Amino acid sequence: xxxxxxxNLNKVALLRNSRGGSNPSPRVAAHACIDAGASGITLHxxxxxxxxxxxxxxxxxxxxxxxxxxxxxxGDLREELIAxxxxxxVDQCTLVPVTxxxxxxxxxxxxxxxxxxxxxxxxxxxxxxxxxxxxxxxxAPMIAEAAKTGARRIEIYTGPYAEAQKTSGAEAEFIRVRDxxxxxxxxxxGVNAGHDLDLRNLPRLAREVPEINEASIGHAIIADALYLGxxxxxxxxxxxxxxxxxxxxxxx
Length: 252
Prior knowledge:
single chain; 252 residues; alpha/beta; TIM Barrel; 8-stranded parallel β-barrel; 8 strands; 45% helix; globular
């Protein structure tokens, strides 16, 4: 069974914001991704609005409903984000810890230490019929604590797995991701994965970790689209989500 591909369009919004105006359009990009086979669209709405904005969240949630694909909203625990998620009934809300000033997400929630902070929000989202997911490090022993939060899924932070490719630590990082996914599935949790996944490191996960339900990918897709075009890039990532090894553009 293939991994569902949810395309994170933050980088499209970031490029738009850098110039002002409305071009490039996250909406147009979303249509192109869905037409090429993406299973869903993701936005991470940060408080500083440096890429996705509230208006983008509303717009792409509506588009996804029209197109019959899932919309995943990522973000921290702030009230404006959770209230918007509940108002527009996103399909999935992925809660992510945020460190002020960070360039990108670089760690999962520390459990059980942070469980008390996230459980009321998880309960609130669950009550609205929104699938909840929490961002966690690849750490199988911690999964029992994740299950206690009431979240329906975890999203495994795959940054270390991606960074370890072609190093002596690659196998150990793969095993960490695999074992975490297995532990989650055994606990009744769905499994998502995200961060620095690309055409080179995604196929192995698709082939050898069948517990992964969904991968959220943004930066690598938009970077590859500069060389391949967006539609062709999505087609290759959909194939990678089936475990196929496909050609990846040179990065340097």
